[in-house]
Amino acid sequence: MRPLSDKESLLGRDVADVPSPFAQRAVRHVVGTIILAVLASAVVVAAANRCRGACDPVACAAALYLVVLYCLQVKFQEWPEFDARVSLLLFSALALFAGPAALELLLGRPCMFPSWWPWVAGLSCAAVSVCAWRVMVRGPCPTVAPGSMKGRVSIVTGCNTGIGYETAQALAEADGTVIFACRSEDKARAAIARMMEDSRAAGKELSKDQLLFLPLDLASLESVRGFVDAVDRSGLEVHLLILNAGVMLGSRSVTKDGLEGTLAANHFGHFLLALLLLPKLQEAE
């Protein structure tokens, strides 16, 4: 039986190991639908209360903002894990938007709200909206503890700009060694020089030994294998591999390996890189 080619082995391994995301999508859609129903009802109640003078326009605007926000979350399937923060956020939104109507319903008569109620409701709704943005849109801002990466080597692909650059800088400023796995040596060297200047301006001095460059073209399986060989020859252990690089080509192209260009760089190159570096990562654990 003939051995499988790079393309066949990558395709077979990938298709076999990818789990079906149906259950995860279903949970997100169910949770998102419940949230949308609650907040959509809150908008109607807030508008009705406004007609009776029980609510102000800020509450309606905040409710509408939350509805749009969660619509986008469900649309792009980016709903995070359901935790205490999200539960508190939804309870606060419901209490602020539907609270006046619920109180009148329980008492069976119109309620006379104090003069300061619109201000409290407005500020509370604004606070809930900010929390919704931080939890659901912006998300947490992880930081790397100073010195936590000392003696550890990280490989970051495509880290000469963007998110990869910021990731590499955070790891280096935590006393780690970062290998810049980039296609263009000139851009990588320029990014290293800029990173050292930025860190120096922030009062964190980086040494040249912390920032290393090794060429890597993810669209070429030969280049990926050459990169791994260069890592082996360097004698460095590899503790962390961050697959950051990616392209979005405007037209179809085919690599010399017979793979579509975007898929080769974004998927197959990274898959082969992780596969070949897995033994080193396991040894460094």
TrEMBL record:
GO molecular function, one term: oxidoreductase activity
SUPFAM superfamilies: NAD(P)-binding Rossmann-fold domains
Keyword RNA-binding included in the entry's annotation: no
Domain of life: Eukaryota
Protein keywords: Membrane, Oxidoreductase, Transmembrane, Transmembrane helix
Segments traversing the membrane: 26-46, 58-76, 88-107, 116-136
Pfam assignment, any one: adh_short
Family in the record: Belongs to the short-chain dehydrogenases/reductases (SDR) family.
Listed name of the protein: Protochlorophyllide reductase
Organism: Polarella glacialis
Higher taxonomy: Eukaryota, Sar, Alveolata, Dinophyceae, Suessiales
